[in-house]
Amino acid sequence: MERLQINLGERSYPIYIGEGLFSRLQEIKPTGDRYLLLTDQNVDVYYGDLVMTAIGREKCHKYIIAPGESSKTMETVIQILSYMLDCQFTRKSVIIALGGGVVGDIAGFCASIYMRGIHWIQLPTTLLAQVDSSVGGKTGVNMPQGKNVIGSFYQPQVVVIDTDVLKTLPRRELISGIGEVIKYGIICDYNFFSYIHNHLPSLLTLEKDILEKVIYRCCKMKAEVVAADEREGGLRKILNFGHTFGHGLEAAANYEYYTHGEAVLIGMMVESKIALGMDWIDETYYKEITEAIEKTGISLDISHMDRELLLEKMLRDKKNQENKISFILPKGKGKVQEVLLPKEAVVW
């Protein structure tokens, strides 16, 4: 079992990475008078009983939501909080997020506002959540106007990454996680980007040594960024590479057509093209990035999407300033930089 630490003073917490960790939760979980296991219908089939048993059924309630972005709403949050109040959960109770990014975002948001804040833990079950969304304390829900526009920064007590669960992950969701993995190489570490480029087939077959190395390295990079800039005042913005366009694409498709990871992969391709047009990167590096993205096998064709609608959705991004769209663009190998562009200057 590997262990990393997110250093945030009194809000610091560990990340555990290894095989079979969900069955060892009694050793790891924070103390609580009661526990709410929040999961979705798909994940519950595989791991709901395992986690309930590991936590202790006598103290653990379970709340199941529908899978996918359609559940990431204020209505879902109100339903969960009402259930907790009806069951008389207290300030000493703990929420357990068992699932991917949607479950984690909702669980963390509920924890941040229930009785003005209770403890919670992350048990991420997708590659995307394991390498990215479970670390850093971003929580929230979507609104019709945009993605993650309602939420909070609220750190968990612990993140437990059980690599065994990826064996039941659908291939489409695995590929979605690859998008965030590639992102880390582009924004922080060109050598890591080259490693992913060269070992992508082995990663897609969940080769143990490569998988654990990749998860550990991604979590370490994110831990360093979050420790330096918890609330995204500066450095943490680099984690948004591919996300400005990606979030716009998700919203324009009503959160129904693309997974988050697929949208980020397309967003990284488009934003790299914008950087190429600005002479921030050369043609050779642009081809490296697009070739790595193409290796995932997803369709990168967005010709069916309305350009004006995409721009309208991007203009609602919460990171924008002065009616200009905030992009994080590659600026050399393993480096990115924020740029604010007026709508008419966004060319892809």
UniProtKB/TrEMBL annotation:
Residues annotated as binding NAD(+) are 101-105, 125-126, 138, 147
Task: Tell me the cofactors it needs.
Answer: Co(2+); Zn(2+); NAD(+)
Catalysed reaction equations from the record: 7-phospho-2-dehydro-3-deoxy-D-arabino-heptonate = 3-dehydroquinate + phosphate
Q: What is its main location?
A: cytoplasm
Keywords, A to Z, come to: Amino-acid biosynthesis, Aromatic amino acid biosynthesis, Cobalt, Cytoplasm, Lyase, Metal-binding, NAD, Nucleotide-binding, Zinc
GO BP annotations listed: amino acid biosynthetic process; aromatic amino acid family biosynthetic process; chorismate biosynthetic process
Alphabetized Pfam families for the sequence: DHQ_synthase, DHQS_C
Residues at which Zn(2+) binds: 180, 243, 260
Query: What are the GO cellular component annotations?
Result: cytoplasm
Q: In which pathway does it act?
A: Metabolic intermediate biosynthesis; chorismate biosynthesis; chorismate from D-erythrose 4-phosphate and phosphoenolpyruvate: step 2/7
Cofactor: how bound: Binds 1 divalent metal cation per subunit. Can use either Co(2+) or Zn(2+).
What's the stated role of this polypeptide?
Catalyzes the conversion of 3-deoxy-D-arabino-heptulosonate 7-phosphate (DAHP) to dehydroquinate (DHQ).
HAMAP family recorded: DHQ_synthase (MF_00110)
What is the name listed in the Swiss-Prot or TrEMBL entry for this protein? Answer: 3-dehydroquinate synthase
What is the species of this protein?
Geosporobacter subterraneus DSM 17957
